[in-house]
Design a protein that fits this description.
This protein is of the alpha/beta class and 366 residues long. The chain contains 13 helices and 15 strands. It is globular. The chain binds nicotinamide-adenine-dinucleotide. The site of nicotinamide-adenine-dinucleotide has 25 residues, from helix 1.
Length: 366
């Protein structure tokens, strides 16, 4: 019997909801068996716009209609961070599969409540840390795993982007500059992606020391500088910034292995002018590896012919594979918990001016 398409419901048709819709449409066109059942947004204009990216059969203002729809097997939650908790609990009650955007919630206690519930539910549940699917990151992770250039020793990681609030960017959303809605500034909103990558590559962090600063006058930090120690012994620094420079959104990651260093730079989309990958092996000249080659190799390894335009395409392909096969999603909610605990440890460290152990934050977690 022919396989039935997985029915998709999407809640929240803003920046990332639109990108997910376009990505889902792109992979559906490449043979991934999914169906655009229904999308919801409180804002009618955004609802209409999402349907031009992927032709949903129904549009609604009511997110609960998406969750309850009998043809919906999997729900994407793409609304502002402070709304995730209630929607996630409704998805769990309905027994649907879940793809939730990060951060999971503004407050760490709420994140724990969410993770406890999701981890005991018999569903496939994935967190929107799509940077794990960036081909350059997968290549660094591969070096960390194989030992070909020795063990990883330490790293420097930097994210910077223009303040994502309407004052600086007409496409940004006002909720981001209020702690009660977003949970904080660039660390929780943006660099939680980086923190997930670092845990994925080097194992979970055990302790964090951090300093934060607020310059632009919002009630969230606009710079955070962290020193992170991983269980594996790897140590590194992460700095993240919301600056006032429009059009600038770049991330850079330098990893120091026993026998080589790797420096990578990337932008938001797959094809970004910032993309670069340089490896310097002991005793050899630095080698710049073309991004096109890295992407080609990654797609070949995954058996995918169509290059993505946004990394969440690869994340979604994997999500649907997990639904089909019953495999656990990666990144899942345990990964979400570790990333959030690291962020929380950093905020606590900055407030209390001391190094914070992750076990202080998750020792009660079962
Ligand atoms: N994975 C990523 O790289 C990435 C990128 C951007 C944003 N995000 C995350 O995705 C989430 C959304 O961010 P965004 O930039 O798309 O925000 P946004 O403000 O652009 O869009 C949010 C949309 O949700 C709608 N909405 C709000 N409450 C709703 C509700 N209860 N029901 C239905 N619709 C509702 C709004 O009308 C708006 O259209 C945030 O948690 C954000 O941190 C993730």
């Amino acid at each position: 019997m022919a396989e039935k398409p997985i029915g998709v419901g999407l809640i929240g048709c803003g920046n990332i909801g639109l990108l997910h819709a376009a990505s889902l449409s792109h992979i559906a066109g490449d043979g991934v068996l999914i169906r655009p059942v229904i999308a919801a947004d409180l804002n009618a204009e955004n609802r209409e716009e999402v349907a031009s990216n992927w032709k949903f059969e129904r549009l609604t203002a009511d997110p609960n209609e998406v969750i309850a729809h009998p043809e919906v097997d999997a729900v994407y939650i793409c609304t502002p961070t402070f709304t995730h908790r209630d929607l996630i609990f409704s998805v769990l009650s309905a027994g649907k599969h879940l793809y939730s955007e990060k951060p999971l919630a503004p407050a760490f206690e709420t994140v724990k409540e969410i993770c406890r519930a999701v981890l005991s539910a018999p569903i496939i549940a994935q967190v929107g840390f799509q940077m794990r699917h960036n081909a350059m990151h997968a290549k660094v992770k591969n070096f960390a795993q194989t030992g070909e250039i020795g063990k990883p020793i330490g790293y420097l990681y930097r994210d910077d982007e223009c303040w994502p609030t309407t004052e600086f960017s007409p496409f940004a959303s006002a909720w981001r500059s209020q702690r009660k809605f977003s949970g904080g500034g660039p660390l929780i909103e943006h660099s939680i992606h980086g923190i997930d990558l670092l845990s994925w590559m080097f194992g979970p962090p055990v302790r964090v020391a951090a300093a934060t600063r607020s310059v632009f006058g919002y009630d969230i930090e606009d710079v955070a500088a962290l020193t992170i120690e991983h269980e594996s012994g790897v140590v590194g620094n992460l700095i993240t910034i919301y600056g006032g420079v429009e059009g600038r959104e770049e991330s850079r990651f330098e990893t120091f292995f026993e026998k080589a260093t790797i420096e990578i730079t990337w932008g938001v989309m797959v094809e970004s002018e910032e993309n670069s990958f340089r490896i310097t092996r002991s005793g050899e000249a630095p080698e710049n590896v073309a991004f096109s080659r890295i992407l080609e190799e990654r797609l070949a390894a995954l058996g995918i012919g169509l290059p993505p335009f946004f990394w969440n395409e690869l994340a979604s392909r994997d999500f649907f594979k997990c639904i089909r096969t019953g495999r656990k999603a990666s990144p899942g909610f345990k990964d979400g918990l570790i990333a959030h605990a690291t962020v929380e440890a950093a905020y606590r460290s900055a407030r209390e001016k001391r190094m914070v152990e992750l076990k202080e934050l998750i020792s009660d977690f079962t």
